[in-house]
Amino acid sequence: MSFGHPPHILVVGGGYVGMYTALRLQRRLRQGEATVTVVEPNSYMTYQPFLPEAAAGNLEPRHVVVPLRSVLNGCRVVSGSVTGLNHAQRRAYIAPNQGTPYELHYDVLVGCPGSVARTLPIPGLAELGIGFKSVAEAIHIRNKVIERMDSAASSNDPQLRRRALTFVFIGGGFAGIEAIAELEDMARDACKFYPELSPSDMRWVMVEASGRVLPEVSPAMGLYTLKQLEHRGIEMKINTRVKSLVDGHVVLDSGEEFDTETIIWTAGVKAHPLLANTDLPLDERGRIKATAFLQVDGVEQAWTAGDCAAVPDLTRGEGATTSPSAQHAVRQARLLANNILADLRGEPIAPYEHSYAGSVASLGLHKGVADVYGMKLRGWPAWLMHRTYHLSRVPTFNRKARVLADWTLALFFRREIVSLGAFADPRAGFREAASPSAAPAAQVPASAPVLSSKSAGHGEPNASVTGGRKPAATRTVGPAKPSGETSVA
Ligand SMILES: Cc1cc2nc3c(=O)[nH]c(=O)nc-3n(C[C@H](O)[C@H](O)[C@H](O)COP(=O)(O)OP(=O)(O)OC[C@H]3O[C@@H](n4cnc5c(N)ncnc54)[C@H](O)[C@@H]3O)c2cc1C
User: Fold this and answer.
1) Phi first, then psi: what are they for 298, rounded to 5°?
2) Kindly report the CA angle at 308 between 314 and 52, in degrees rounded to 5?
3) Cβ(224)–Cβ(378) below 8 Å
4) Which of 110, 142, 176, 434 could bond 55 through an S-S bridge, CB–CB 3.0 to 4.6 Å?
5) Residue nearest to atom 27 of ligand 1 (CA)
6) How many whole angstroms from 15 Cα to the centroid of ligand 1?
7) How far is CA 272 from the centre of its chain?
8) How far is residue 430's CA from residue 426's CA, in Å, rounded to a whole number?
């Protein structure tokens, strides 16, 4: 195909498909053959299978992402989002992370903005829930778990402690199972540093609407996973739906009710809503209709792959499409780049055909489950396979070395149990110091209870001091700063 000029290839999204496609194009394009622009709101690609390990503190968060500008140094990287596409006119509407939106002209499109959490209209979910798809979410959840442990350990209110130490995950697929297993493992480990808490004070709950977990592995391995997690004290509520989450009060369709402050939603994904703002053909699930050659169905010079695309699965026959997984995304990206190059050079393109190899999942340190090419492994061997597989897959030698270094250090040192939650509002301390009434008045209960680790013991706090209730009254000690007076330390 001739454009009369070096064609401009626009890659929408710098995730698995986007980064790998751009990387391969950058390596294989001849001088002056084409230019490549990648539009991505983050400055990095996220290796999502490592998010549970990052949340558990086994991996440094910076090591589970790949900086796009250093890896894609032969491409133009735009930090922003595509908000719409008019492919007929080859125009993309770009909202840069800062500044005025603009139009970008291109010749060849690679549409791969991935997926977003598939939520349900459950009352309270939008207000309190959080997903588990980004580094920010994984680290926020880690911080929150540790913060709640800190709060519970420092409180003598049994209700507060119970609520703070209840962690609810909704959705028992890969992301949910790995996340709950890794975080429970981390919290159990962390209990060693909290004399006021024991693992049995914590309540970890997995709610799954279907009759099994980990549909990605065989039913027998799914059952093994369920039993393993139950054995660790995780409440596995299968065939159960959440009816309401208002103010953290969980109501299940089984009639059970309890309170929590932590709700993690991992109940599947749906195609990115951006696709609705394009002239590309979509299927009934909002995914881009693709051919087996990874071309957008019936559209010229438009390609797609990954979670956002309905790619025919030739290994499973008529009507089947490839599942949203890194396994397919990486392989599709390689073929996608090859096909674009072949098309530019007038050579034949090839169809995508890969039968799902199986899955590996980590269930915490030294625990796992694997079902790969019919080989079923459990426990330590599966966990080792999980690590070996993902180490071989994580992009760039630099990241592999850093991940390996993290794991090696973890053999000799305890994992870090620290919440850097203040990162969410780093200016808070300075704002407070700079505000006119810098020192808040101290609040001391009328009959000050004493919380000691000995008296609180492992379990209920010292109820004899508080009577298990919040203190009835508080008194203020020390003069409150008159407004307008600035405290200078
Ligand atoms: C916790 C977790 C664990 C997982 N573990 C496994 C596993 O073990 N094995 C496995 O096979 N799969 C796993 N997956 C699934 C796998 O990570 C995804 O299937 C894969 O990332 C899909 O690749 P993608 O390129 O389609 O989407 P993504 O990798 O999500 O990339 C999409 C990119 O598009 C960007 N984007 C979004 N909107 C816009 C916009 N408007 N403009 C520009 N860019 C945009 C996003 O920021 C993102 O970087 C896991 C997923 C999660 C969340």
Assistant:
1) 75, 10
2) 100
3) yes
4) 142
5) 114
6) 6
7) 15
8) 8
